[in-house]
Amino acid sequence: MLSYGQSTFAIVFALLGAMILVAIINRLWPVSSRKSLNDVNAWQMGVLGTTYGVILGFMLFTVWTDFRTAEIDVAQETAALLNVHRVAAGLPSPQREQMNALAIKYADAVINQEWPAMQTQRVSHAGDAVLEQMWQVLIGAQAQNIRETTTLDHLTTAMTGLGERRRLRDEEHESRLPGVLWVLLIVGGMATVVSSCLLGNDKKWLHYGQVLALTFVVSLTLATIADLARPFEGAVSVSPASLQRAMVIMQTDTPH
Length: 256
What we know:
The protein is an all-alpha fold and about 260 residues long. Helices cover about 80% and strands about 0% of the residues.
C-alpha cells in the first residue's frame, strides 16, 4: 500500500516526533526527578513492550503469510491458464484456435488492465469478460470422438480451476485489515515509545539513542505491515511475472 518514499517519510516523521518528545519531557520534567520512578516504570514498560512485541510479531507473520498465499494463488492461476491453453490443443477446429487466442487475450487483459487497476485500488473486470468468452467457446464445442470428449472434460476442469484462482485473487485484493487492528497497532506503538521517553537517564544521548532505536523498529515494522497487508499494491507487491512468462509461452506455441 505504501511506496518507498511514503514509508521513508513515515519512519523519519516518527523518529523526529520521538526526539522532540524526549526533548520536551527533559525540559519540563528533569531527569533527576524521573530517575526515582525508574524502578516502577521499567517493569511496567517491560510488560507493555513484551505484549506489544508479541502483537506486532503476530501481525507481521499474518500479513506475510497472506502475501505469500497471494503469490502462490497467482502462480496457480497461471498454471491453470497454461493448462487451458495446452488441453485446448485437442479441441476440434475452429474452437481450438479460438480458445488459444482467448487464453492469450486473458493473460494480456490481466497483465495490462487488471494489474494496473489493482495497484491503484480500482477494480477491472477485463479478465471476466474474456473468461466468459472462453466458456462460450467450450459450451459450443461438439465432440466427434472419444478423444475430443476427453479433451472437453479435461478442459472443463482446467477452466473451473482458472475461475477459482481468479476469484481467490479478487478476494485477496479486496481484503483489508480491520480498522480496530490498526488502532491497536498504532496506539500500542505510541504507548510503547512514550513509555520509553519517560525513563530517566543521566546519559541523555544514550537515552536519545535508545528511544530512536525503539521508534525505528516499531515504525519500520508498522510500515512493513501496511505494505504487505495489500499484496497487490505499494512498493512490495505481487508481480504478474508468471503471467507474462505464460503469455510468451502461449504465443510461441500458437501457430501463426
